[in-house]
Amino acid sequence: MKSDVIIIGAGVTGSAIARYLARYDIKALVLERNEDVCTGTSKANSGICHAGFDAKEGSLKAKLNVQGNKMMEALSKELDFPFVNNGSLVLCEKEEDRPKLEELLNRGKANGVEGLSILDRKELEALEPNITEHAVAALHAATGGIVDPFMLTIALAENAADNGVTFKFNEEVKEIKKIAGGYEVVTGSGVYEATVVVNAAGVYADVIHNMVSDDKMHIVERRGEYFLLDKSAGNYVKSTIFALPTAYGKGILVSPTTHGNLIVGPTANDIEEKDNTETTAEGLQEIRNMVDKRVVNCPLNQVITSFTGLRAHGDRGDFIIEEVKDAPNFIDVAGIESPGLTSAPAIGVMVSDMVRDILKATDNKNFNPKRVGILHPFTLSDEERDKLIKEKPSYSSIVCRCEMITEGEIIDALTRTLPAHSLDGVKRRVRAGMGRCQAGFCSPRVMELICKYAGCSMEDVTKFGGESKQILGKIKEDI
Predict the structure, then answer these.
(1) According to the CATH classification, is domain 2-42+150-219+316-359 in 3.50.50.60?
(2) What are the CA-CA distances from residue 337 to residues 47, 192, 205 (Å)?
């Protein structure tokens, strides 16, 4: 199969690049090692749209963070995914640390961040009554926000696919060969050719880079563990609450989510295992120990799940977005750690324009920038919902009681341009299984629907692809 460009990786970065590449008359292919989009770093992060005050002046992180932040609200309307401009706070716990707040303020202004100010204790209490008693001041970033990382990634990928980009899953890249006029990419099940290759492989970006370059790259897997709290705790804070940043990032945060939960985390521990997303007793205890430095009496008795994500930390300390010197037409998009989620739209524009210039591509006159997400009937008026149910009775049947998700929504998730194939794929698209019982009630019915629309048996249904099967076999009864 010959393409103009192959993108390796279907996380938020790869999906953003694919979406913005679709603006041009380019034949693009996305190869993803897992069974769906948004299965790596993009699925397990804080969902924060950072304002951009933290990154070093002049860095790619600073530039693309601010650009991405400014793009996010309009993009959320264009692609129909949740975004809330809730603002963020960086707490100062000691009087002697006030100069560090001033430093962040000045850096943010130099980076082009608008709406920055320093709040004193009284202003802070008025904004966030549950703030820790130790906070003496805070940097307030009015442009900070929160986003649903799953739905952002899926929206970008669906819009790319709707505009002609091809996605292939379960295609782990095993080898890349330089050939005349481009590259041959060998996966476990096929061989693909392209003039340009874009390496957006997350924690595997070093592995992919090192297949084509003698100048070796090293990505450090930085593990971050989280608690997710029930919606009963979702209003505990309105803003995203950070501590003063360290070399390992912004530390343990407390934030509402776009769906009304509360998220607490992450830790930051460097490991050397690219697939180790286990939670640890030590990591979760670290969150418990640190959260009181952000808010008073955080309701951790309302935790409904914990999870771990891996961030791709590069040796340079900045995003690596460049054509590889000894591999022409091979573009690295590596080391995309925080604020990578916020920066993704800006990265998509930057890299797609690099590819356009290499290929001398023209505009795609049929590009449609809009995408309509999955309809949640409880956002409708009673009259509108009644009309919908008469036309499509599946929207009257509640499958996930925690999140009030209907059969109609799940069917939509299973029949879209990039359909879900697993329980987690459905969960990321419509939140069935994301609530208090964590899929304890709805899984059997969701599995039945997957079987019906994917044409498989119950024994074939997985949680997240691969060997994560939910049913190991049937019990044979003696007759």
Answers:
(1) yes
(2) 13, 28, 12
First to last CA, the chain: 52
- Residue 472 confidence (pLDDT): 81
The rounded distance, in Å, linking the Cα atoms of 410 and 400 is 10
Note if the bond before 266 is cis, omega within 30 degrees.
yes
For domain 85-145+220-312, which CATH number applies: 3.30.9.10, 3.40.190.10, 3.40.50.720, 3.60.15.10? Answer: 3.30.9.10
Each residue of 140-196: pLDDT tens digit? 999 999 999 999 999 999 999 999 999 999 999 999 999 999 999 999 999 999 999
Structure-token match 């009015």, residue found:
142
DSSP letter at 358? H
| pLDDT band for position 315 (cuts 50, 70, 90) | confident
Residue 175 CA to residue 383 CA, distance in Å, equals: 56
Alpha-carbon Rg for the chain in angstroms: 23
Please confirm, yes or no, whether 313 is among the known catalytic residues: no
What's residue 228's pLDDT? Answer: 98
